[in-house]
């Protein structure tokens, strides 16, 4: 055991309230609603091509969510935990009459004039987007279960950003309507439920201070994944607007 791990194990276990406060402090400092790109997006400061670039790249993340959750479930021996977690895959992939979050995201990219096949191919996504997203999938596949669960807890902070996005984009963009905001409206209900389960799970199963701190670090890592995606978008499409070879070029978008 490393000296750092031994020192962490020797620390007093946080109370459940202290543990939750440490998790929430990460969001207050690092969640991507603070990123300049999101402030431009919600404030109506981007053009249609820039919004389309965001939606196209974000599809990579949306499509990876059920893959990372399926990877998590494949590692779980506890049947009840598998039952509790599998609905996350279905929330995004769809089930029964619910088309799922990925389909709702494609309605958004359709509304922005992007070809659906092109979006799904992810050929136009930024290299940094792909690397960040796959880093998250690997993290959930490889880290201890309690730490993998903790990485999902950015959902604690999601309702606020979804509310801002719905009101800001509907108010500021004439090419956005209520129908294409369906993904975010659904997540206003889903995200708090999912986050509540995950928070209760880590409070019950992080049994040492080291495990608690690893959970906090997992939330920090996930915030970095989301932040890195916006760094790449800002660099490619806002300033200095340097689009990597092969990535989506807003000038090809039909703005008619």
UniProtKB/TrEMBL annotation:
Gene3D superfamilies: Heme oxygenase-like. Keywords: Oxidoreductase, PQQ biosynthesis. It comes from Hyphomicrobium nitrativorans NL23. InterPro entries: Haem_Oase-like_multi-hlx, PqqC, PqqC-like, Thiaminase-2/PQQC. Its EC number is 1.3.3.11. This is Pyrroloquinoline-quinone synthase. Ring cyclization and eight-electron oxidation of 3a-(2-amino-2-carboxyethyl)-4,5-dioxo-4,5,6,7,8,9-hexahydroquinoline-7,9-dicarboxylic-acid to PQQ. It is an enzyme of class 1 (oxidoreductase). PANTHER family: 4-AMINOBENZOATE SYNTHASE (PTHR40279:SF3), PQQC-LIKE PROTEIN (PTHR40279). It catalyses: 6-(2-amino-2-carboxyethyl)-7,8-dioxo-1,2,3,4,7,8-hexahydroquinoline-2,4-dicarboxylate + 3 O2 = pyrroloquinoline quinone + 2 H2O2 + 2 H2O + H(+). Residues 22-231 form the Thiaminase-2/PQQC domain.
């Amino acid at each position: 055991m490393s000296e750092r791990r031994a020192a962490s194990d020797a620390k007093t276990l946080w109370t459940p309230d202290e543990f939750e406060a440490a998790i929430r402090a990460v969001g207050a400092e690092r969640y991507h609603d603070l990123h300049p790109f999101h402030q431009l997006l919600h404030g109506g400061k981007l053009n249609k091509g820039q919004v389309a670039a965001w939606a196209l790249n974000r599809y990579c993340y949306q499509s990876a969510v059920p893959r990372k959750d399926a990877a998590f479930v494949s590692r779980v021996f506890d049947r009840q935990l598998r039952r509790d977690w599998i609905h996350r895959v279905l929330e995004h992939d769809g089930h029964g009459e619910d088309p799922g979050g990925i389909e709702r995201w494609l309605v958004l990219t359709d509304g922005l004039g992007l070809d659906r096949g092109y979006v799904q191919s992810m050929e136009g996504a930024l290299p940094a987007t792909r690397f960040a997203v796959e880093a998250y999938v690997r993290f959930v596949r490889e880290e201890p279960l309690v730490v993998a669960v903790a990485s999902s807890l950015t959902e604690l902070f999601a309702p606020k950003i979804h509310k801002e996005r719905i009101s800001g984009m509907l108010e500021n963009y004439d090419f956005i309507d209520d129908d294409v905001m369906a993904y975010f409206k659904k997540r206003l209900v889903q995200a708090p439920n999912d986050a509540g389960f995950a928070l209760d799970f880590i409070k019950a199963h992080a049994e040492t201070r080291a495990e608690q701190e690893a959970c906090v670090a997992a939330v920090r890592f996930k915030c970095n994944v989301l932040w890195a995606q916006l760094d790449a978008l800002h660099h490619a499409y806002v300033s200095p607007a340097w689009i990597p070879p092969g990535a989506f070029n807003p000038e090809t978008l039909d703005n008619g």
